[in-house]
Design goal:
single chain, 6-stranded mixed β-sheet, about 0% helix, elongated
C-alpha cells in the first residue's frame, strides 16, 4: 500500500484452490460403520473434515489427490460425501448405504 507517509511492507497472500471430488471407491457399502472409502479428487492436501450425510468421519490425507475415510453408519440409502479444506468445501459425491438382506 502506498500512502503519503510511505510504502508499507508487502504481505504474502496464498490462494488455496477449492477441492473437487471425482470418485469414491467403493461407492456403496453396508449400513454399519467401518467401510474404508478411497476419495479421489484435486486440492485435498489441506483437508480439515470429511462428512458422510453430514456426519463427520475419521480420515487420512494420502496425497493432494487422495483421502481414505471410514464411512459412518446410518440407514440404508444415498448420502452425500463432502470434503472441507482450507480452500473451501467440495461439491458432494453420492455414497449409498445398502441394508443387509433379510432371511
Amino acid at each position: 500500500m502506498i500512502t503519503p507517509g510511505g510504502t508499507s511492507n508487502p504481505v504474502a497472500f496464498t490462494y488455496v484452490a477449492a477441492p473437487t471430488l471425482t470418485a469414491l471407491v467403493p461407492s456403496s457399502g453396508p449400513t454399519s460403520a467401518g467401510t474404508v472409502v478411497t476419495i479421489t479428487g484435486t486440492n485435498l492436501a489441506t483437508a480439515t473434515a470429511v462428512t458422510f450425510g453430514g456426519t463427520a468421519v475419521s480420515f487420512t490425507v494420502v496425497s493432494d489427490t487422495q483421502i481414505t475415510a471410514v464411512a459412518a453408519a446410518g440407514p440404508a440409502g444415498p448420502v452425500t460425501v463432502i470434503v472441507t479444506t482450507a480452500g473451501g468445501t467440495s461439491p458432494g459425491l453420492t455414497y449409498t448405504r445398502v441394508a443387509a438382506p433379510g432371511i
